[in-house]
Design brief:
Rossmann fold, 5-stranded mixed β-sheet, binds histidyl-adenosine monophosphate, elongated, 8-stranded mixed β-sheet, alpha+beta
Length: 423
């Protein structure tokens, strides 16, 4: 019989150090985003496939090749969420958040699923935290969103970031740009990769994001004009206003005239945060404005702007810069019974400290010397020894492992001593 002791390719268990990095990032995200007035939202990890087909877009790689889809027992087509935005907008519409004071600021964190080829920085189950601002279209909101994504990453100590900001214009602008690309590229169809030949039909802009060598070569030869040249007056004014706000906030950005995001719902502002020490998968996060998304899902028009950051990639970036996760609080006290029949009493003693203090007890009796060693190995600040005398008097002999000071005290006194740090 095959042994099931391996996680599925592209998925990972998270514990100890890696989880500490994740927690550091999520705490930073929560702190910043809640300070800026965001409410947390948790949407289901699966939705009707249509939410993503219509939201993220049928011509996107995500929908075309990367969704984990399945049919439930009732014959409904479902998909594990490849990203968070479409579900958040679906929830906004479903729960009538339109009647809340606008804009509604929401943040979320959780696992996302994409059936991509696993490699460093690319997994099939990965984690994102994200921010979505719905119900208003002012350029301040784009700038606020960009700035928060940048500040959170700076706030955990990352220095080697580059923030690339562009605009993909309004729908008519993209239609004009796609028409331009079609005209330019159609005579060279045969030279395009198979994927890009398909994109030429469905959404030529996506060709610009292709990593395939023949596509890259052709694009270079043809000196393709960037999307930014095709912005209409309104999208252009909006982009300029966003940049003015970013300068006002002292957020250092570069303009990327060619930015193409991997999702079809974007309109106007689009940005990505890259890390200079990561290789092929250098995008830590990205986002943009998506004013048409609610309508794609069948709702009324709702302007929106937001972003998501990939947690695993950001952890790689933190490691590359030598950054540590925020330290976890150590074990306060480790209690050891000196005889087998006293182990239940060790459990009871430990329970009296919970949840104010972090206290563990040993399930095996130990001699005092071994007990102290075990407490040291656990990283505890104090060791508690429970022998027959202590058990009889309801006390504990406690040793402060750093100073070596030892006292026999009742539980309330131990609490006080431990809380006071051992002074
Ligand atoms: P995205 O650019 O597709 O945007 O993903 C955001 C981030 O998620 C990426 O920059 C990357 O760090 C991480 N990521 C994506 N795919 C993988 C993967 N297979 N393995 C590891 N990390 C990955 C979105 O998802 C949009 N929903 C962002 C957004 C929110 N736009 C508006 N609102």
């Amino acid at each position: 019989m095959a042994v099931v002791t391996r996680a599925v390719k592209g998925t990972h268990d998270l514990f100890r150090e890696d989880l500490a990095y994740h927690r550091t990032l999520l705490n930073a995200a929560r702190r910043w985003l809640e300070a800026a007035g965001a409410d947390e939202i948790a949407t289901p990890i699966f939705e009707f496939s249509e939410v993503f087909e219509r939201g993220v877009g049928a011509s996107s790689d995500i929908v075309q090749k990367e969704m984990f889809t399945f049919t439930d027992r009732g014959g409904r087509a479902l998909a594990l969420r490849p990203e968070g935005t479409a579900g958040v907008v679906r929830a906004y519409l479903e729960h009538g958040m339109k009647v809340w004071p606008q804009p509604v600021r929401l943040w979320y964190a959780g696992p996302m699923f994409r059936a991509e080829r696993p490699q460093k920085g690319r997994q099939r189950q990965f984690h994102q935290f994200g921010y979505e601002v719905l119900g208003a279209g002012e350029p301040e909101l784009d700038a606020e969103a960009v700035a928060l994504s940048y500040w959170i990453l700076r706030g955990v100590g990352l220095n080697r970031l580059s923030l690339k900001v562009g605009s993909v214009g309004d729908r008519e602008d993209r239609e004009r740009y796609n028409a331009y690309l079609r005209e330019l590229l159609t005579p060279h169809t045969a030279r395009l990769s198979e994927d890009s030949q398909r994109r030429l039909e469905t959404n030529p802009m996506r060709i610009l994001d292709s990593k395939a060598e023949p596509d890259r070569k052709l694009l270079e030869e043809l000196k393709v004009r960037p999307m930014l040249d095709f912005l209409g007056p309104e999208a252009k004014a909006h982009f300029e206003a966003v940049q003015e706000r970013l300068r006002r906030l002292n957020v250092p950005y570069e303009i990327d005239p060619t930015i193409v995001r991997g999702l079809d719902y974007y309109a106007r502002t689009a940005w990505e945060l890259h890390h200079e020490l990561l290789g092929a998968q250098s995008a830590l996060g990205g986002g943009g404005r998506y004013d048409g998304l609610a309508e794609l899902l069948g709702g009324p028009p709702v302007p929106g702007v937001g972003w998501a950051v990939g947690v695993e990639r950001t952890v790689l970036a933190m490691k590359a810069e030598g950054l540590s996760p925020a330290p976890e609080p150590p074990l306060d006290l480790y209690i050891v019974a000196l005889a087998a029949e006293l182990v239940p009493e060790a459990l009871r003693a430990a329970s009296r400290f919970w949840p104010e203090l972090r206290v563990q007890y040993g399930v095996k009796p130990r001699k005092p010397g071994k007990a102290l060693q075990e407490a040291e190995r656990k990283g505890a600040r104090f060791a508690g020894l429970l022998g027959p005398d202590e058990a009889a008097s309801g006390r504990l002999t406690v040793k402060h492992l750093r100073t070596g000071e030892q006292r026999t005290l009742d539980i309330e006194e131990v609490k006080e001593w431990v809380r006071g740090g051992g002074s």
